[in-house]
UniProtKB/TrEMBL annotation:
<dbReference type="Pfam" id="PF00702">
    <property type="entry name" value="Hydrolase"/>
</dbReference>
<keyword id="KW-0378">Hydrolase</keyword>
<protein>
    <submittedName>
        <fullName>Glyceraldehyde 3-phosphate phosphatase</fullName>
    </submittedName>
</protein>
<dbReference type="InterPro" id="IPR006439">
    <property type="entry name" value="HAD-SF_hydro_IA"/>
</dbReference>
<dbReference type="InterPro" id="IPR036412">
    <property type="entry name" value="HAD-like_sf"/>
</dbReference>
<dbReference type="InterPro" id="IPR023214">
    <property type="entry name" value="HAD_sf"/>
</dbReference>
<dbReference type="GO" id="GO:0016787">
    <property type="term" value="F:hydrolase activity"/>
</dbReference>
<dbReference type="InterPro" id="IPR051540">
    <property type="entry name" value="S-2-haloacid_dehalogenase"/>
</dbReference>
């Protein structure tokens, strides 16, 4: 819901100051998406980060908690949504749609800072011990919304993690991108959030009657 470039600009000082940690953390987050089963995601990622950095797992977990989970949200404060996000959410809410947020990182601070409210649920995939595109996070959101996966229209900007992950559990998908992927499996692709509602209608998706976003 916000430009990733804007987030990178705001966080670059913190990332540069802790370059080894963020480099290891990013690689580990890619690695854990392919690991199954996982009983404790935070413990696993601390072990893997520790191995990459050559430090103790307890030290790695303390660093991740202090820098990635505590300081990074502060560095991102002031990030603004894409134009049209608030209007699209308002229209969906007025239509009676249930709104939910799923993020691979805890979303509460970012939503609060962007002034986005009124969600039936706002959760991190970490709550399931699996990251997208694993099925557990998407099914968890559907459960919290009290709907079937096929009643959900999932909006995301990452084709592999968001669109393919949500589609694999039966959700409808809307890909926020400049252009559609070749042979895209998304039900619709849109460039600007002020064109999301027209794109939903053009795709023949009825909200909220029979579908929930």
């Amino acid at each position: 819901m916000y430009p990733t470039r804007q987030a990178a600009v705001r966080s670059w000082r913190l990332v540069l100051r802790h370059a080894r940690l963020f480099r290891a953390f990013r690689r580990v987050r890619i690695q854990v998406r392919a690991i199954r089963p996982i009983s404790d995601l935070h413990a696993l990622q601390a072990d893997l980060v520790a191995d990459r950095m050559g430090i103790d797992p307890a030290e790695a977990r303390a660093l991740i908690d202090a820098v990635v989970y505590a300081r990074l949200p502060d560095a991102l404060r002031g990030v603004r949504t894409h134009p049209g996000v608030q209007r699209a959410l308002t229209e969906l809410r007025e239509r009676g749609a249930k709104l939910g947020v799923l993020s691979d990182m805890p979303p509460d601070a970012k939503l609060r800072d962007m002034g986005l409210r009124g969600f039936a649920c706002a959760v991190t995939s970490e709550a399931t011990d699996y990251l997208k595109p694993n099925p557990e996070p998407f099914r968890y959101v559907a459960e919290l919304l009290d709907v079937r996966p096929e009643q959900v229209l999932y909006v995301g900007n990452h084709y592999r993690y968001d669109i393919l992950g949500a589609g694999a559990v039966g959700m409808l998908t809307a890909h926020h991108a400049r252009r559609a992927e070749q042979s895209s499996r998304a039900d619709l692709t849109f460039l600007r959030y002020d064109s999301l509602m027209p794109a939903i209608r053009a795709a023949g998706i009825r909200l909220p009657s029979g579908r929930v976003s």
